Amino acid sequence: SLHGIATSTPSRHSSVKCPCAYQQSYHKLHRITNTKGEYITLQFEYYTSLTPAQCASALNKRIEQKETASRPKVMGKATKDSFVLTVKTPVIGNFERRTSLKATSTRDKGTTIIHGFVNIGGTRQQQRLIFIGGLIVALGLITMGYFLQGVLVGVVGAAMYIPLEGDARNSAYLLKQVQSILKAKTRDPRPN
Fold this sequence. Notes:
- By secondary structure, the chain is an alpha+beta fold.
- The chain has 3 helices and 8 strands, in the order E-E-E-E-H-E-E-E-E-H-H.
- Strands 1, 2, 3, 4, 5, 6, 7 and 8 form an 8-stranded antiparallel sheet that branches.
- Helix 2 (about 125-145) runs antiparallel to helix 3.
C-alpha cells in the first residue's frame, strides 16, 4: 500500500517496456485501485546516492520553481519518506489533464531507493485503436441515420483520448524529472 492506495498485481503481468519514448528500462505494470476506479499504472524503482533528506530538498526546490513557456509547473510535496509530484498540461485546446506520481524513498547500504507509481495513460497504438474504432462506429451510426448516437460516440472517443494522451505525456515528463532531479538510475548499484 502506498499512501492509502491498495495495489494488486495482475495474475498475468510481466516486465514490459515503458511506453515513455525516452525510457529504455523495463518496469512492471500493476493494477491500482482507488476511490475513482481501477487504472493500469507503471510501478518504477530508481536508485540514487542522495540521502532521502537531500532528495526531498531537491524535489521541493523544483516544486517551488515557477512555470515557464518550456517548463510546466510541478505541484506536490516531498518529505524524507515520500513525495507526490503532480503536473497539469493541455492536451487538446483548453482541455487539460492532471497526472500525479507518488513514491517512497528508503535508504539501504548507502543507496536511496525510490519506489513509486504513476498512471501512464495509453500507448500510441492503443490511442489509434480507440480513435479508429470510435470513428468507424460513429460513421456507421451516422450513415444508418442515427446522427445523434454517432455524434455521441465521437464525443466519448474524444473524451477517452484526453486522459490517455495526457497521462502518457505527463507521466513521461514526471519520470524524467525524478531521474534528472535526483540523479537517479534504473540499475541497483548495491552489492549483492
